[in-house]
């Protein structure tokens, strides 16, 4: 019997879509234990923006471990942490004129979200948080309360309270002025909506189906929050670190959130790391008020620092991401046109793209057909109706073209 099926929990999911045993991974390819190669358009759900086992990041990590450097550090001051903080200031914050404090909340995205929600409530003294339809922010209780997916919310087993969902961009008829209804509720003492502590938003909803918010919608949201004294939290866990082009996905809108959540590719090498960025005046934490045993993952600090040095000292990577994004968009547009009877449509930005189908049964068939042909693609959306493409930002043009060709064949086979 399959040992994984015999011993591992039924909660496992990705392995059901890709039922092989993977053994090695280099760049944008994964290899199973029999040596078969798969082009990776999954990239660790966005945790591998720089690909698998990038040689420069691997060298930095191995050198750090070989000299018996600190591995586990809680929130102690270490050389590795100091180097990361310096790199964040030099390559990310200072060039963008951003003045954020950096919090190490724990090593995963949901840790960053939980700390952001807790801090917003502490600062404002309010309880409710506004989130958006089809949002995904994590699997712990606070993060689940602002997540839209009913299946994931149902797993909590208890009521998820103190959160109010609102329509994401394009959810309602586009003739409805943005936030007219939201502002009316805030201004009306009879609406039943208490002034929230914060609004939390993804600029591009990944798990929700690659739903892209317009820059003007984001600006209107930021303006509303500012006028009503509501903190704006941007969850950039999946779409940050260059996934949409710029380092932060919200840069296109020219806004500066009060709090930013980072994880996944901030570690550079796929190692657990999360950061919560906050305006200095919001840093009202008492020492130890929000902590975690593994918030000091020093090997991840090392690979994160090296990734910032390699990829964010200039504008080359964002430019390459934009160029590759155009290639993906054009290929998906061609595929959608060939399968117009399936109601196929294209959505995305940078190197986060989705091919959506009116019949939600099609996208899983596409993912299966792609896997059979040597391509890893996952599904997204409230009904799994979107084939989701998130290749590494460093993928070569030939591999990108090969993967898109496989996808085209997979869509044809899935009809």
TrEMBL record:
The keyword Transferase applies. Belongs to the class-III pyridoxal-phosphate-dependent aminotransferase family. PROSITE patterns: AA_TRANSFER_CLASS_3 (PS00600). Pfam families: Aminotran_3 (PF00202). GO terms for molecular function: diaminobutyrate-2-oxoglutarate transaminase activity; diaminobutyrate-pyruvate transaminase activity; pyridoxal phosphate binding. Pathway: Amine and polyamine biosynthesis; ectoine biosynthesis; L-ectoine from L-aspartate 4-semialdehyde: step 1/3. SUPFAM superfamilies: PLP-dependent transferases. InterPro entries: Aminotrans_3, Aminotrans_3_PPA_site, Dat, Ectoine_EctB, PyrdxlP-dep_Trfase, PyrdxlP-dep_Trfase_major, PyrdxlP-dep_Trfase_small. Gene3D superfamilies: Aspartate Aminotransferase, domain 1, Type I PLP-dependent aspartate aminotransferase-like (Major domain). Its EC number is 2.6.1.76. The keyword Transferase applies. GO terms for biological process: ectoine biosynthetic process. This is Diaminobutyrate--2-oxoglutarate transaminase. Its cofactor is pyridoxal 5'-phosphate. PANTHER family: DIAMINOBUTYRATE--2-OXOGLUTARATE AMINOTRANSFERASE (PTHR43552), DIAMINOBUTYRATE--2-OXOGLUTARATE TRANSAMINASE (PTHR43552:SF2). Keywords: Aminotransferase, Pyridoxal phosphate, Transferase.
């Amino acid at each position: 019997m399959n040992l994984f099926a015999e011993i591992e929990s039924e909660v496992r999911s990705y392995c059901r879509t890709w039922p092989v045993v993977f053994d090695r991974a280099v760049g944008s390819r994964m290899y199973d234990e029999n040596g078969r190669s798969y082009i990776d358009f999954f990239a660790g759900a966005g945790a591998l923006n720089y690909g698998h086992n990038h040689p420069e990041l691997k060298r930095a990590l191995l050198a750090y471990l070989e000299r018996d450097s600190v591995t586990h550090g809680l929130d102690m001051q270490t050389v590795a942490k100091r180097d990361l903080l310096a790199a964040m200031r030099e390559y990310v914050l200072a060039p963008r004129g951003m003045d954020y404090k950096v919090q190490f909340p724990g090593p995963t995205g949901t840790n960053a979200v939980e700390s952001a929600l807790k801090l917003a409530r502490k600062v404002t003294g309010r309880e409710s948080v506004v989130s958006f339809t089809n949002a995904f922010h994590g699997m712990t209780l606070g993060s689940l309360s602002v997540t839209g997916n009913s299946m994931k919310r149902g797993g909590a087993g208890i009521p998820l309270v103190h959160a109010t969902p609102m329509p994401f961009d394009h959810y309602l008829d586009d003739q409805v002025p943005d936030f007219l209804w939201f502002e009316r509720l805030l201004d009306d003492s009879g609406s039943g909506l208490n002034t929230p502590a914060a609004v939390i938003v993804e600029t591009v909803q990944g798990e929700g189906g690659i739903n892209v918010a317009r820059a003007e919608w984001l600006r209107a949201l930021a303006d509303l929050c500012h006028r009503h004294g509501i903190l704006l939290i941007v969850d950039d866990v999946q779409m940050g670190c260059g996934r949409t082009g710029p380092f932060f996905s919200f840069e296109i809108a020219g806004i500066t959130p009060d709090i930013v959540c980072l994880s996944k590719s901030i570690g550079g090498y796929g190692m657990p790391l999360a950061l919560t960025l906050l305006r200095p005046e919001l840093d009202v934490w008492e020492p130890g008020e929000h902590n975690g045993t593994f918030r000091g993952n020093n090997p991840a600090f090392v690979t994160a620092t090296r990734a910032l040095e390699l990829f964010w000292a200039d504008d080359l990577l964002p430019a390459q991401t934009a160029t590759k994004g155009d290639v993906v968009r054009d290929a998906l547009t061609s595929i959608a046109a060939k399968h117009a009877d399936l109601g196929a449509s294209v959505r995305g930005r940078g190197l986060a793209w989705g091919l959506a189908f009116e019949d939600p049964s099609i996208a899983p068939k596409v993912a299966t057909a792609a896997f059979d042909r040597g391509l890893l693609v996952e599904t997204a959306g409230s009904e799994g109706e979107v084939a989701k493409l998130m290749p590494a930002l460093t993928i070569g043009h030939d591999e990108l073209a090969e993967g898109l060709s496989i996808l085209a064949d997979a869509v044809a086979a899935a009809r």
